[in-house]
Amino acid sequence: MKRIFSGAQPTGNIHIGNYLGALRNWVELQHEYESLFCIVNLHAITLPQDPKLLAQKTRDLARIYLAAGVDPKVSLIFIQSDVPAHAELAWILNCVTRISELERMTQFKEKAGKQRESVGAGILNYPVLMAADILLYQTDLVPVGQDQKQHLELTRDLALRFNRDYGETFRLPEPFIPKVGAKIMSLGDATKKMSKSDENVSGSITLLDDADTVRRKFKRAVTDSGTEISFDETRPAITNLLTIYQILTGRQPAEVEANFAGKGYAALKAELADVTIEFLRPLQERIRGYGDAELDRLLDEGRERAQELASVTLDDVKARLGIVGARARGGV
C-alpha cells in the first residue's frame, strides 16, 4: 500500500473547516493507504505559545483525531516532538535548502510582512520541518490544502536534490487535494479561509461549540446580494454555506438546491445549524470519552511505531552523508 502523511497544529480551536477539509478525508483514505497522522507541535512553537495550554491542546487534538474516526488499529497517530528524528532530519535538509527558496514562500511573506528583521527563524524554516515530516516516512501522498501546495513543491525539490547529490534516498510525495470541501471559508468573510487564528470568533464553527453557539454563528454568517440559494462562484458566501450543508448531509448539489428552492436565507441558516448540531453531538461525546490512561497508551504505541519507521530513513540519510549512523551500517 502507498503511504499517506498529514498533520495539524495543536493551536487555536479545531473547526468544522478542519474537519471537512482534512479530518474527513483522512478517515476515508486510511482504508486505502498506509496512513500516518501527526500532531505537529514543533510547528506550533514557531510562534510564542503558553506551555501548559500547548501541552493540553496537543492531547485534545489527539482526542479529536480519534473521535473523528482515525482508527489507531489502522492508522498511526503520534506527536511530532515524541520522535526526535523530525528535528534531526530538518537540520540536515536545512543544509541543502537555499535561503532564496524559503524567502519565496508565500506564507513566509504573509507572516513576516515588513518585520523580516525581527521575525523568528522558525517562520522561515517552517517548510523545511514540514519537508522532514513528510520525507522521513517515505510518503507517497500528502493531503494538503491549496495554501500548503507550495510547501509540498519545496519538499519534492529538496528530495530530488538530495537524491541527486547523495543517491536515491527519498520518495517523491504527491499532493492529494479533495475536490469538494477542500477550502471552507470564514462565516464572517467569505473571501478568507476559515481559520483557527481568526480574531473574529464568529467566523468559524469549532468542533466543541454547543448548540446555541452554532445557531448564533450561522445566524450572523454573511450572505451575498440576491435571494436565490444556489451554488455560484460569483456568490461565495452562499456557496460556502451550501458546501458545508452538502458535505454534512451527503447530498448532491442539485438535491441541495432543490431542497432550498423558494426558501430564504434564514431558512438556509436554520437548517444548516440543525444539521451541524446533529453532526457535532456524537463527535463531542466521543471526544469526551477518551480518558487520559487510554490516550497515553495509544500515543505511546504511536510513538514507538513512528520511531521504528523514522529510524530507517534517518539511518540511511546519515550513512549517505558520512555522519553518525554510518558506523553501524559499515558505510553506504
Overview of the structural elements:
This protein has 332 residues and is mainly alpha-helical. It is 55% helix and 7% strand. It is built from 14 helices and five strands. The strands form two sheets. Strands 1-2-3 form a three-stranded parallel β-sheet. Strands 4-5 form a two-stranded parallel sheet. Helix 4 (85-94) packs parallel to helix 13 and helix 10 (236-249) crosses helix 12 (265-289). The longest helix has 30 residues, at 292-321.
Topology:
Elements: E1 3-8, H1 16-29, E2 34-39, H2 41-44, H3 51-68, E3 76-79, H4 85-94, H5 99-103, H6 106-112, H7 121-135, E4 141-143, H8 149-166, E5 174-176, H9 211-220, H10 236-249, H11 253-259, H12 265-289, H13 292-321, H14 326-329
Parallel strand pairs: 1-2, 2-3, 4-5
Helix pairs in contact: 3-12, 4-7, 4-13, 7-8, 9-12, 10-12
